[in-house]
Fold each of these.
Amino acid sequence: GAGVSQTPSNKVTEKGKYVELRCDPISGHTALYWYRQSLGQGPEFLIYFQGTGAADDSGLPNDRFFAVRPEGSVSTLKIQRTERGDSAVYLCASSQGQNSPLHFGNGTRLTVT
Amino acid sequence: QQQVKQSPQSLIVQKGGIPIINCAYENTAFDYFPWYQQFPGKGPALLIAIRPDVSEKKEGRFTISFNKSAKQFSLHIMDSQPGDSATYFCAASMKIGAGGTSYGKLTFGQGTILTVHP
């Protein structure tokens, strides 16, 4: 079937604006993750959902970042009052759960001008 | 203690060569060590992974060597091909979530850009 789908693939926004990034995980995958990848760096963990609840949000950098997964499938990462330092590729990954490998999407490239 | 240090930053080999990428970690609670391959504009894709109860794992042309006492692990790519040219990331994790249900909170290394010349 289809892999992890992320939309939009690119987003350009002005400093101070609000953005939403969407992730459609692989069907049936109960675990969902958000990572952020800055240029030339490895991905950094942001948040992990098991079902509808955030099981670990320790990677969210500050309270401008928030993520939801209301029905246990699609997830939205929300960034308020964007800053230029938020510019990065935001990656979503899903897995079947315990001891299962992560499947990453191709990411959303966010540019804050 | 959460860092994973990866070297070299970049690596150039000829077709057929055996590039070796090294990683070191500090947190002894890590017990899952995957390697990911990433092409430009794409997300990382899992290549191979190892747990600390074994010292070596092979899958096709990819081999992980693991040294628990030294807290180091490495990726070897046998008979490398131009199509292997990509960025490679090592990572490490421990179980998280209620009841320890996931290894998905990965700490990644900084990446190695591999170029394989024809």
Amino acid sequence: EPEVTQTPSHQVTQMGQEVILRCVPISNHLYFYWYRQILGQKVEFLVSFYNNEISEKSEIFDDQFSVERPDGSNFTLKIRSTKLEDSAMYFCASSDGQGWEEKLFFGSGTQLSVL
Amino acid sequence: TQLLEQSPQFLSIQEGENLTVYCNSSSVFSSLQWYRQEPGEGPVLLVTVVTGGEVKKLKRLTFQFGDARKDSSLHITAAQPGDTGLYLCAGGEDGNKLVFGAGTILRVKS
């Protein structure tokens, strides 16, 4: 079965540093998402992306966050100046449609640790 | 803000037993999904329910969506150690943005 690939699997950074989390969605998918899961807490929606622009974002996704699809295969999440509370597992997901009937595929996640 | 509450938080049972996990909300969702998540992996979709009262079966797993589309249940018959994992429910208005419950950790002992 096709899969969403995320790199790196673990990222350790110092507070205030910029990080870029990378994702390769499933090749024919058109909708891309980032979710995060702080240890012991719920999976939370961050942002959705379609047709080279953000279609929806949550309150968590403030000015420190940005997403980009730099080429035809990668989808990145950038955190400009990391904070301790950004430590979490970040999941990328993709689907080929937006309706309820479309299956959302999640990657294995990037564990971000901000020290 | 839409919230999904899952119960129980933890469930430890013997192989062969039956169990039911619940997902409840005060809000109406147009669809509700159940995921299973293994340690170190992302959630994997098990099923999507859309119609109030809908029942879907996936081998030994039975999923039901409440008539009012505010709650759902997952019933596992004759649980096996391979069923061990974190079970998440998630609701949404469409596939664009999902609200997740906190999950039920299931452990099936052999």
